Structure formats: C-alpha cells, structure tokens
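Students often ask why we bother encoding 3D structure as a string. The short answer is that it lets us treat folding as translation between two languages. Here is a chain of 360 residues written in the first language.
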Amino acid sequence: MSAASLAPLTTVGVGGPARHYVEAKSENGIIEAVRGADESGAQLLIIGGGSNLVIADGGWPGTVVRIASTGYSVAEDGTGSVLLDVEAGQPWDELVDFSVRQGLSGLEALSGIPGLTGATPVQNVGAYGADVSQTIVSVRTWDRQERAAKVFTAAELGFGYRDSLLKRSTVNGSPRYVVLSVRFRLEQTSLSAPVRYAELARSLGVEAGQRAGAADVRREVLRLRASKGMVLDPADRDTFSTGSFFTNPIVDPAVAGTLPEGAPRWPAGQQVKLSAAWLIDHAGFGKGFGLAGTGNGAVDGFAVAGGRASLSTKHTLAITNRGTASAADILAIARTVRDGVESAFGIRLHPEPLLINCRL
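And here it is in the second language, the structure alphabet:
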C-alpha cells in the first residue's frame, strides 16, 4: 500500500510520503517484507516507533517497512536471573513497566523512552546512567546481504556510546541487519540496578552507586523526563521531538581543558565526555530558542524557522515541532545551534537521530 505521509509515524511529526508502505506484524512478516523490497530493487527504510528519525520533506522513494511485531516471554535461567525474549515491535515503555511490576531489575532507569524494543540495541539506548548494553544478551536479526537470520551476542555488537554494529552498518535508515527480536537478562529482585546518575540518586535520596526500589526508580525517572518534556504528551508541543537531538561530545582532554572550569565533564576512557546541553545553553541558545522574542545576540531565533520549530521550552537538547514544522524547519534550528556552539567553543555537535534523505 502507499502512505500519504510518514510524519504521523514519527514523534517529531515531519516527513513526506513513501512510495510503498508495508506494516509487518510478525517475524515472518518482517522477513517477507524486507525480502520483497530487496528483490524488487527498492530502497528500504525501516520504521519502528519513529522516535529517532527526521525524515526529509520529500519523503522516501522506495519501500517503508513498519515493524509492528509485539509480545515477549520470560524464562528462568537457573542463576537467579531471567531471560526476557522480546519481539522487535514491542513498545519499549510497556516492556519496562512489565519488568518492574514482575519484580525484574535492570530496565527501570530506561523508563519513559518512546519507541520500540527493536530499536534499542541499534542506538544502544540509554538514560540516567543506564543503557541497554548492560542487560542485552543477544539480538536476532535478518541479514539482508546473506539473506539469512543471524544472532549476535552482546559482545559481537560492539556497543559504544549511542552506537553499535547495527547502527554502523545502517546507511540512510537502511540497515544491513534488521532486528527481529532482543533477549535481555534481568535480575529477579525488587531493587533497582545501582543508581549511577547523580540527579536521579538525589531525587531518590540515595548515594550514587546504591540501589533503590525499582518501582521508585521508574517513578522518579518518569517524573524527571516529564519535567524536561521527554515523555510523549499530545497536549504538550515540547514532547513533539526526537528526544535529545545532539549526543554529548566525547573529546580529547586538551579540548575539554579549553572550557570554563564549571563546564560539566565526565571520564570516557582516555577521553572526556561533555554536556551538549551546557554547550548549547552557554553558546546563547536558551530554552525555547526559535520562538518569538528569542535569540542569542547574533541570531534572531524566530527568523530561523518562523516559530514553527524551536528548542524545547523545558530542555535545550530537544528540537520541537510547534505544530506546523517541516523537516527543513527542524534542521534549520539544529544547524543554527550546531554552528553557534562550534563558533563559541570550537566543538562540533553531532545529531543523535537518523537523518533520512536530509542532512545538517
């Protein structure tokens, strides 16, 4: 079938039409749809929850396969842990909620993240000091090149910060390996994994590295995310985004040393991770940049995209669709912020979402 617009399939709400559109509701359905596109020579775009995509206003010239397989199963592994096998199209936060209610620990700090389970290993989705690489055992995929199912162990996926082999082998939204299902190992306990993120630890009243109730962690994470416009809410335009638009830059210590003493920084192996939000704010791009009356001294915010897109009014890392934005509007705000940060600090920010048929 054809799709009039891909915008409703994304959380930022932009994107033109697809030439062909298929919704795949099972593993076999995913494989058949992908094989059909490949055998026809069509360009292939995979869409899950659409929370990490900015699709060009011109849309997609080939086939879009939307992953819609749902379900999960739990099995004890004999070590006090359980194995949780999850279909790629299972909504992520429903799975996190289930795990916490079943007394399973490991996913609670990743509450409230939009999207589907199959996308989580691609981006090594993370938040509040946790990421999925800490609990993933393996990922079952369809290898489009070999035309066969292939299972990767966590070690084989080469996880990094918002990165994996699955992401590195994806070009313009077209992956070599299409995720079919994901296996997690979770601990059987009502206690959370160690709380690593200072803001979350403070809100829970524990020291960083200590545990809290998993249900308490989920509640606090949802509260914190909502306060930053990071939990989808149809009544709140600040939530019409891809979440964090830029990754936190990882730089050499010498580069980090050029920043003011108060700039946040964290060890990252031999390098240093910086706060993209701090850089954006201190380059003069405050919350709501892009709306009427905003600017950074050098740039009139409203002039960038006519108020149709802006930084969130709650968090400078999110670029939001205020109701009528195009992909070009979203990218105009992103480009202005990226260039402004580079001009101010000599550090170039890189986008976290996949940019489909478009670029900064």
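Translate back mentally: Residues 7-67 form a domain with the Uridine Diphospho-n-acetylenolpyruvylglucosamine Reductase; domain 2 fold (CATH 3.30.43.10). Keep this in mind for the problem set.
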